[in-house]
Amino acid sequence: MKNYKFKVNENGYSVNIKSHEDNIINLEVNGTSYEVIMSTEIKKTKTPTLVRSASKQPAAPLQVTPKSTKTNIVAPIPGVILSLNVKVGDTIKENDLLLVLEAMKMENNIVAEKSGVVASIKVVVGQQVLQDALLIELE
């Protein structure tokens, strides 16, 4: 397992720890094997467990204003626009594919939340967008 070299009163010692289980250690000192029983067990260090604290603010629900005639499609995560599957004036149905957003080397399909007509497209292919950036407006 581990090798150590010690010098005590000008005498050299080569110590090789062979195994360690609970409080019993098998080691070799200058070629002679020994079994050492520790009076107290050596505590093994544990890998720390990371605990994420609860968010101070609850996730804001999607707010849809029923009076508004426009629906904004925003980026759910930061990424790069890989493809646009619609153009201004297209009539779309709910769950139609609008665009593909690449984030963390994964392609994410962005689909329509509801039926409507594409009023404007605010991005181009290859553009990097941040989270919550406006991508498409629907009427």
From TrEMBL:
Keywords tagged on the record: Biotin
Keyword Signal on entry: no
UniProt-listed SUPFAM superfamilies: Single hybrid motif
Domain Lipoyl-binding, residue spans: 63-139
Record's keyword annotation contains Acetylation: no
PANTHER family given in the database record: OXALOACETATE DECARBOXYLASE ALPHA CHAIN
Name listed for the protein in its UniProt record: Biotin-requiring enzyme
Species of provenance: Winogradskyella thalassocola
Lineage per the UniProt record: Bacteria, Pseudomonadati, Bacteroidota, Flavobacteriia, Flavobacteriales
